[in-house]
Design brief:
The protein has helices at 2-6, 36-45, 131-145, 151-158, 160-179, 183-204, 208-217, and strands at 16-22, 28-34, 49-52, 57-60, 69-76, 83-89. By secondary structure, it is an alpha+beta fold.
């Protein structure tokens, strides 16, 4: 993977433009920028990651809206300084709610482009897979700052044995809820288990991309 990235021509800021295109309709959806780390995370996770020039940080497309982009294929141009990424789009690519960022013609007239309600994509659910990244960021901050009264900070203060004990307890709760054939309990207890597992990952400094990369390698 790294050898291919080394062949690309990043600009003086370490960035390369990425054109995002719908794999089914071939409609161009957006243009964003990646640095090396964003491209690596895109390759590892199978979802698009970009570098924000205004905020100067990495971000995953759909991390807050749920409008994620599942990568199908990545191409680079003849000069090796531009990427073309074919994706499956969940919901809208544009922050305005339009399916594509290119929804206006030269005269400024809006062309037909479906507008999505933020909750529409995951109707019936209050979140998306992106919540895992949001949660991970929160856990990292709790580990660093250890705010008083925070349960997460309490776990980090108590250390590995306490975290492992909670992982074991929540695993048992998932087993019990499954044996009871209670879907609501399974959802609740699985959420508790995932939370404590992620506390454990943050404790060890293991990134979600490491887990996703391992799962992908098993396909």
């Amino acid at each position: 993977m790294s050898s291919r990235i080394d062949e690309l021509e990043f600009d003086s800021r370490g960035l390369i433009p990425a054109i995002i295109q719908d794999v089914k309709t071939r409609q161009v959806l957006m243009l964003a920028y990646m640095n090396r780390q964003a491209l690596e995370k895109t390759l590892e996770t199978g979802y698009t990651w970009f570098y924000s020039r205004s905020r100067e940080c990495l971000w995953m497309k759909g991390e807050t809206s749920g409008h994620i982009q599942k990568v199908q294929q990545i191409y680079y141009d003849c000069d090796q300084d531009t990427l073309l990424i074919l994706i499956e789009q969940e919901g809208a690519a544009c922050h305005t709610g339009h399916f594509s960022c290119f929804y206006r013609n030269w005269e400024g007239e809006e062309q037909e482009s479906r507008v999505f309600d933020p909750e529409e994509v995951y109707s019936g659910r209050v979140g998306s897979p992106a919540i895992l990244y949001e949660l991970y960021d929160v856990l990292e901050k709790r580990k660093e700052l250890r705010p008083q009264g925070s349960y997460t900070a309490y776990l980090f203060n108590e250390g590995q044995d306490k975290i492992l004990k909670k992982v074991g307890e929540e695993t048992a709760e998932v087993i019990i809820s499954s044996k009871n054939h209670n879907d609501d309990e399974i959802i609740y207890e699985t959420s508790d288990l995932l939370y404590h597992l992620m506390v454990l990952l943050v404790y060890h400094g293991i990134n979600l991309s490491d887990i996703f990369g391992e799962l992908k390698s098993r396909r």
